[in-house]
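Subject: YbaK/EbsC family protein

B.,
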Amino acid sequence: MPVQQLKDYLDKANVEYMCLSHPPAFTAQQLAHHVKIAGDRVVKTVIIELDGKMAMLVMPATWRVRWDRLSRILDTDFVELADEQEFQDSFPDCEVGAMPPFGNLFGMTVYCAEVLTEQPELAFAAGSHTESIHMKTRDFLNLVQPMVINQGFTRPGTQKPAWLLKNRKRPEPREETLLAGY
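Prediction pasted inline below.
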């Protein structure tokens, strides 16, 4: 979907948006940098294979997928990152890696990180590495109707809960404890 088709779709839906041109951005983090917006407001679009079908995962640029948690929340044994070769034909006229987060326009189920829905506005690649769309989150949610999920993601650098750290770090057995059994 070239940028113009996306604009036409948004215009037809009577949605306010802004389209910006910027230097090439090949990651959502680069897009955030170029348009000077916090990474939590920039959408990272990830294509996943879920039980043999392609689906779209949208989350903040600053977050990463936790595959074990995502599998659990989606109640499946098979979820993985889709290979670009397998899905590039599903996004005609889009540059690889610049797919807009409108999976509904491409026949894909969209899963959205709940934390993204808490942002007032979002920015995302508009099918090209040099143009992005900026719009209100509520309009995005109304148009896409994603399945909002609250697990399966992590923000790098966040502190793990104390109880989790305690369970992971088991103390080495002391020598006197080992000898006490003899």
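The longest strand covers residues 43-50.

T.
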